[in-house]
Amino acid sequence: MKTTTFPLRDFLVENKEVNFDLASSSVSDISVISDKNIFSSFDTGYSDEYSLELERKLVDMYGKVNDVEIVSLPGAQISNSLVFLTLFDHGDEVLVESPNYEPLVKLPKQLGLKVKTIKRRYENGFDLKLDELQESISKRTKAVVLTNPHNPSGVFMGKEKLSKIQQFLEERDIVLVVDEIFRDFVKDGPSALEVGRNVVVTSSFSKIFGMGGIRIGWVASRNEGLIEKIHRMKYHMNLLNSTLSERMTLNVLENRETLLTEVRALAQTNHSMVRGWIEGSKHIEWIPPSAGIISFPKFRSPCTSYELAERALKDDVLVSPGRFFSEDCDDHIRLCFGINTQKLAIGIQKLSMVMRTWD
Ligand SMILES: Cc1ncc(COP(=O)(O)O)c(C=O)c1O
């Protein structure tokens, strides 16, 4: 198999020592592990005890949506991978959005799927145009893959639009795959699961609760057959998740509402701060994200997104070059604000100083 690189990941890892990280899309400085006795009576053998409980609790989390089935897996990214690997055949066509989180474009390609893209344009508020989506569907299309909220812009697609897309796809026997890793930032934000049974959702707590290192995520659907296929593939590939991580995640689920309140308050405060800066700046503009801690502003300078990121690094600030999300987004950066508010204020000030050198 021909494999490809993941430049965003490499860039973030290379520069992880930075003091003002406005590139990471996870909430940081949040303490989620409250049960310090977790190790006192822990069975380290093969056990599905925690995954069964975890999957039950995750189903409960989807509340009013009926017949939800869940497979727990080591993170949202593996969940996306198993969806591509299991539900489609070599040569099948999938439609993905652009700009996008890189693996959602490159991974299906590496797995031998045919990848077509549909634009989410800045001029349209990063909205996905229904007529363009419909025109992009061919007889060979087997899935449309969205992120909701959209990564990198943070723009959320409401239920009405999701429903229209789902209906159009259902009539053509096409699966709607939605990566909802940022959805919990949107208070009462509907899950795509609500709109139909030809929907597969992936997620994790890696972003909302800064739990990327715990490696627990899931695939959810109301289509039992699809979930059964993914269960089978999971057993062949990895048997189980880390039981310790499952136990920790169960713990977090107990405190989910309290944690969500804390995280959403941070996101809102930080959003206001970033908005204040951007709206008062002549160097940068944005489509305000619906909620959450990621955004994809556009800057006005002759430099490339990579040059801007490199220049910011000299001042100890990390931002993600827009080109990592789409080649034609070289006048954007992904600006994240899940860090503590004091640090964010300094990071923004430094970035603003860099931009003033363009005057
Ligand atoms: C849209 C999206 N999906 C999945 C992931 C990876 O999630 P996890 O760490 O849970 O595998 C990321 C991380 O940046 C992401 O942005």
Would you kindly provide a written description of the structure presented here, covering whatever features stand out?
- By secondary structure, the chain is α/β, with parallel strands linked by helices.
- It has two domains: 7-29 and 257-356, Aspartate Aminotransferase, domain 1, CATH 3.90.1150.10; 49-254, Type I PLP-dependent aspartate aminotransferase-like (Major domain) (Aspartate Aminotransferase, domain 2).
- The chain contains eleven helices and 14 strands.
- The strands form four sheets. The chain has a seven-stranded mixed beta sheet with strand order 2-8-7-6-5-3-4, with helices on both faces. A three-stranded antiparallel beta sheet has the order 10-14-13. Strands 1-12 form a two-stranded parallel ribbon.
- Strand 3, helix 4 (103-110) and strand 4 form a beta-alpha-beta unit.
- The mean pLDDT is 95.
- The protein binds pyridoxal-5'-phosphate.
- Residues 25, 75-77, 101, 147, 151, 179, 181, 204, 206, 212, 217 line the site of pyridoxal-5'-phosphate.
- Pyridoxal-5'-phosphate (PLP) binds at residues 25, 75-77, 101, 147, 151, 179, 181, 204, 206, 212, 217.
